[in-house]
Amino acid sequence: MERAVHPITQNHVWVDVTRHNSNVPPLAVKNPDCLGLLNKLDRSKDTWVQHYCILKDACLYLYSGIRSTHAHGGIYLQGYAVREQAYGSKKSTIELKPPTDEFKTFYFCADDSAENKRWILAIKASIKKWRPFHQVLQDYMSLPPEETR
């Protein structure tokens, strides 16, 4: 009963890395998958808010500017679908659609279509690095026995 009330939480290296990355300035994040300015749609106010963004390991860190000391938000993108889409007056936006409806859909846009395409390619590549565990295990189990030794 005690464990149900106070579940045991396990620390994982992934959580530590994410926590570290969100607590350093944007240019201190090592080997980002992509970085630059993006505008994020704030649906409650129907306005676009500019952020300096760092993409690393399928996590998009949002900073108020390039001189920020830490991220003020982040989005784990594992399982998200990424596509270019028109939204309102914007002809080209980046739609980040979650795998289920319990999560939020996000809309971003860069200053131009070419920059949107650069971000879309980087986000897709970053997400692709993180396949579900069952898929990795299935791939491993399908290898010939001599390759699994």
Automatic annotation (TrEMBL):
<dbReference type="InterPro" id="IPR011993">
    <property type="entry name" value="PH-like_dom_sf"/>
</dbReference>
<dbReference type="Pfam" id="PF00169">
    <property type="entry name" value="PH"/>
</dbReference>
<feature type="domain" description="PH">
    <location>
        <begin position="31"/>
        <end position="128"/>
    </location>
</feature>
<dbReference type="InterPro" id="IPR001849">
    <property type="entry name" value="PH_domain"/>
</dbReference>
<protein>
    <recommendedName>
        <fullName>PH domain-containing protein</fullName>
    </recommendedName>
</protein>
